[in-house]
Design goal:
globular; Spore Coat Polysaccharide Biosynthesis Protein SpsA, Chain A; 9 helices; UDP N-Acetylglucosamine Acyltransferase, domain 1; eight-stranded mixed beta sheet; 2 domains; alpha/beta; 14-stranded mixed beta sheet
Length: 415
């Protein structure tokens, strides 16, 4: 049996997730709903599939710690590829502040006395990581650190990332951070924030040299540690990430990742129990099964219309005359008669009133969209009320806010 020599992973989860506001105003970004589960569950399930048995969470601040610890406790039961279950063990950063993701890694490595090859990935990263392949590259290169790189096809997108400068052996000689133009980019291969650390690299993170960097506020892998070890001539290997990779730190990338994965993932990976012409449904209880049959009958007789890839959670109710096109609708949500949901995510326990339109948007948890309201290219926080006839175009609405009946919002933030 080929046992992978990497069984542990670190996930730094610091910061407030401000790029994903208003979805993360009151929610740890790792606990955002994603494909009708929590983002951290989705990440952990993928790691477990690759053989990771223990995950160390670099929680920072009250919100991240409380939400994750209360949800995960000491472990999460995940499905195995053969259909069974096993527990992936969870441990947390001690009550110490950190000044960057590498500093968070140092705290965890020191406290738990870890000294073995270990995987590091970021808390807002959704990726298909072939850990065996990455470890093979790491060992063959004799690397101090190996960085998973993803090729970006659209040159205009390179300005958002650190772009790798590589030699002929695919060793990393540095990064150009967020190049202003494609001409400034040394390649199309960008830093994914997925790292494999050698024992020697762990020794460096535990060293007095790195402690001195921390005192200067230099505790980030990308900005501080990687430039330092490259400059010192350490072997930093690049590894081609062949699978999907998304940084879902913004609402736009959240939606992009959602609909890409909804299209390409197998039904088992989405916890789908029933499917009908592109509509994937979740839930195994008798009540869920009854509602699924009802929805299929309505779709078959064109009482409601589904189009494109659709994911429906448990205990969904959809009224007659509704249209659901390329969308994700989470558990216990109600869509009344004549609703249109298109290119959007409606999170759990929402209520969308009759004749309302939700298009290219995210509607946060336990929110209400009134009858004949329009939510277009907008991002709505949790527990928001949008009253009847209100219209939102390219707006952001913070949690617990009320948008009054017939109010029109264009390009604004309601805070």
């Amino acid at each position: 049996m080929n046992i992978i020599p990497v069984s542990k992973a670190l996930i730094p989860i610091g910061g407030l997730g401000t790029r994903l506001y208003p979805i993360t105003v009151e929610t740890s970004k790792a606990m955002v709903r994603f494909l009708n589960t929590f983002l951290i569950n989705f990440i952990l399930q993928g790691l477990a599939t690759e053989g990771i048995e223990e995950v160390y969470l670099g929680v920072s601040g009250y919100l991240n710690y409380r939400a994750l610890h209360d949800h995960l406790g000491n472990g999460l039961k995940v499905k195995t590829p053969r259909g069974g279950y096993r527990l992936i063990r969870i441990r947390y950063q001690p009550n110490e502040d950190s000044v960057g993701n590498a500093h968070s890694a140092r705290i965890l490595l020191k406290y738990y006395r870890l000294r073995e090859p270990i995987l590091v990935l970021q808390g807002d990263t959704v990726a298909k990581i072939n850990v065996r392949s990455m470890y093979k590259r790491h060992k063959e290169a004799g690397a101090f650190m190996t960085i998973a790189l993803k090729e970006v096809q659209d040159e205009k997108e390179l300005k958002h990332f650190g772009v790798a400068r590589l030699d002929e052996s695919w060793l990393i000689k540095g990064f150009v951070e967020k190049p202003k133009s494609p001409a400034e980019a040394p390649s199309r291969w960008v830093n994914t924030g997925i790292y494999l650390l050698s024992e020697e690299m762990i020794d460096f993170l535990l060293s007095e040299d790195f402690e001195a960097m921390i005192r200067e506020g230099k505790g980030d892998f990308g900005a501080d540690v990687i430039p330092r070890i490259v400059k010192e001539g350490k072997v930093v290997a690049g590894h081609r990430l062949e699978g999907y990779w998304f940084d879902i730190g913004t609402p736009e990338r959240y939606l992009e990742a959602t609909f890409y994965l909804l299209r390409v993932l197998e039904e088992a990976a989405l916890d789908v129990t029933t499917s009908y012409k592109g509509v994937k449904m979740q839930g195994t209880s008798p009540a869920s099964r009854f509602l699924q049959v009802e929805l299929i009958e309505k779709a078959a007789t064109k009482v409601i219309l589904f189009e494109g890839d659709v994911l429906l959670g448990r205990h969904i109710r959809i009224g007659d005359g509704a249209r659901v096109e390329r969308a994700v609708v989470d558990n216990y949500t109600v869509l009344e008669e004549g609703v249109t949901v298109r290119g959007s995510v409606v999170m759990d326990r929402c209520h969308v009133g009759s004749g309302a339109l939700v298009e290219d948007s995210i509607v946060g948890r336990h929110s209400r969209v009134g009858a004949k309201a329009k939510v277009v290219r907008s991002y709505i926080g949790d527990n928001v009320t949008i009253e009847e006839g209100a219209q939102l175009y390219e707006c952001k609405v913070w949690p617990h806010r009320v948008v009054k009946a017939n109010e029109v919002c264009k390009g604004e933030s309601i805070i």
